Amino acid sequence: MLVIRLQTPNDPDPAWAVLTxxxxxxxxxxxxxxxxxxxxxxxxxxxxxxxxxxxxxxxNTRNQKQLQQxxxxxxxxxxxDDLDNQHIxxxxxxxxxxxxxxxxxxxxxxxxxxxxxIHQLRTTSILPDLFALPWETDTTxxxxxxxxxxxxxxxxxxxxxxxxxxxxxxxxxAGKTDPIPLRLYSDQTDKWTTDTRFVIxxxxxxxxxxxxxxxxxxxLNLLNGLQDENRAQLHQQWQRWRLAAGLxxxxxxxxxxxxxxxxxxxxxxxxxxxxxxxxxxxxxxPGVSDVDPRGLKSRLASELARVRGKGSTAGASxxxxxxxxxxxxxxxxxxxxxxxxxxxxxxxxTLNLQAKNQQAIETLxxxxxxxxxxxxxxxSSRTADSVKxxxxxxxxx
Length: 397
Fold this sequence. Notes:
The chain is an alpha+beta fold. The protein contains nine helices and 19 strands. The chain has helices spanning 31-34, 64-75, 106-117, 165-173, 211-214, 226-284, 296-314, 321-334, 358-372, and strands at residues 2-5, 15-18, 24-25, 27-28, 43-47, 53-58, 86-92, 98-105, 123-128, 139-144, 147-153, 156-161, 180-186, 198-202, 208-209, 337-345, 348-355, 377-382, 387-393. The strands form five sheets. It has a five-stranded mixed beta sheet with strand order 4-2-1-5-9, with helices on one face. The radius of gyration is 46 Å and the shape is rod-shaped. The chain starts with a strand and ends with a strand.
């Protein structure tokens, strides 16, 4: 177990001890020196006792659900801040109605959790640092500089300043007739030599952490219940935003549905155009089958080339095949065109076409005139989204 002691969340000089079943020496240094010791260890974080209120209350139940409601209610009058902003953990005492309680600001507790996450460490327990003081049966008091830590029980204690020491000692001795056993570590021992109210046992191992000091206090781990609070907050946020999230999801589904319907209609139109082109191709070339509508333009060119070769051998001057051949070659240069109808009569070839723009029609006519050496008659009309045209080719090439 790695025990880390910090004075502030961004403390650059941590103290730490690797605790087993034997006393461990405190070490002091930098995070770079500490982090290698954390590998494979459970991490316990000790934070300043001044940030945690340790108290007791009396609750006549041991049911955890009832305690969850009763403990905050019992403490409501003794806490100045809003209880909704406090994180409260407790531990019942055996054969007693007393409950040991630890209270810390919820926001501050999360700052301490984040303090270790910055260094890629995850703490399993957070405790006030006064639980590092030795505890057996006697009250333990440590005095260092202006700070005082007092441990009065296994799960109880408090911190104070040096200025409040006289009042603190008076409260410890109040109502007692016999001298009070006190385990003491102090860097100001001269203040204690004449106080007869206490029987002092000097602490000689101030730089050691004892397993018996820390292990019992883990029952009052400040992380207890924090995960449940996080879940409750998430649930509360979900309740608040559930309607908005539902509307957003419905909007997304509606958009996908509209897109799907539009895609379906466009595909139907495309299939209808493909079927019309295939029907026209079949009328021109009844002996050709298995034509892919997407490769219809190239197949038309190859069939026209084949027919043109036969037509030139026959030498029929009135055959429309030369015009068809020239038309097939010109289609590749003209852009995107759709053939709606082809009629041949008395050496004249009439082509009914549809294009997205007039330029494609003009390019087709120019290409045919250059290929045939004869003028090509053009008639065209524009609709909302396309241009329809009729090309008339003479019977001689």
